[in-house]
Design a protein that fits this description.
Family: Belongs to the CoaE family.
Low-confidence stretches: none
Mean pLDDT: 92
Distance between the termini: 8 Å
Number of strands: 5
InterPro entries: Depp_CoAkinase (IPR001977), P-loop_NTPase (IPR027417)
CATH topology: Rossmann fold
EC number: 2.7.1.24
Helix content: 40-55%
Shape: globular
Strand order of the largest sheet: 2-3-1-4-5
Strand content: 5-15%
Number of domains: 1
Subcellular location: Cytoplasm
CATH class: Alpha Beta
CATH architecture: 3-Layer(aba) Sandwich
Largest sheet: 5 strands, parallel
Function: Catalyzes the phosphorylation of the 3'-hydroxyl group of dephosphocoenzyme A to form coenzyme A.
């Protein structure tokens, strides 16, 4: 099994690359997505969150109100630590479950937004960084997510710098051109990963 850490700053197009790798046969593990799954209505995770933070973090339909919970934890490091202590082990269990179900020849792609920030590169056989200039990322965040320029700049500034990310990369996928160019680069990278998996 080849373990790939896929990362890129906000607005770099990491999810576009993730989709393309998945379409080629990679098993993509998206920690953010799993973090949502483990607190869906009816799960032990959601029960523990409401036990810790109260029913005020629920929407009328019984699902988790992420914005409400976010406003509580992101201004209070102890509350954030309490939330992480609930969610992280559940995400870890689910990831381990997915890994057990994978074959030896599987190319596992872990979609890890904060790979560089949390010094996680050593956990993977190959680190892929999706790269785009900051100005382009700011423009994308404004166009695709309706984010104000100042907010986009603040989000980018809060993450690792472009140089720090590139320094951690085994493979770089530039994403500052057309989708056709991105497709072509992903195809090259996929061939490279297949070769590495065969050798491993």
């Amino acid at each position: 099994m080849l373990k790939i850490g896929l990362t890129g700053g906000i607005g770099s197009g990491k999810s576009e690359v993730s989709k393309r790798l998945s379409a080629r046969g990679a098993m993509v593990i998206d920690a953010d997505l799993i973090a949502r799954e483990v607190v869906e209505p009816g799960t032990p995770g959601l029960a523990r969150v409401t036990e810790t933070f109260g029913d005020g973090v629920l929407r009328p339909d019984g699902s988790l109100d992420r914005e409400k919970l976010g406003s509580i934890v992101f201004t209070d490091s102890e509350r954030l630590a309490a939330l992480n202590a609930i969610v992280h082990p559940l995400v870890g269990e689910r990831v381990a479950e997915l890994q057990r179900g994978a074959g030896d020849d599987t190319i596992m792609v872990y979609d890890v937004p904060l790979l560089v920030e949390n010094n996680l590169a050593p956990m993977y056989d190959v680190v892929i960084v999706v790269d785009a200039p900051d100005e382009l990322r700011i423009r994308r965040l404004a166009e695709h997510r309706g984010m104000a320029e100042a907010d986009a700049q603040a989000r980018i500034a809060a993450q690792a710098s472009r140089d720090e990310r590139l320094a951690a990369a085994d493979i770089v996928i530039p994403n500052d051109g057309s989708l056709e160019e991105l497709d072509a680069r992903v195809a090259e990278v996929w061939d490279d990963l297949l070769r590495r998996a065969a050798v491993g």
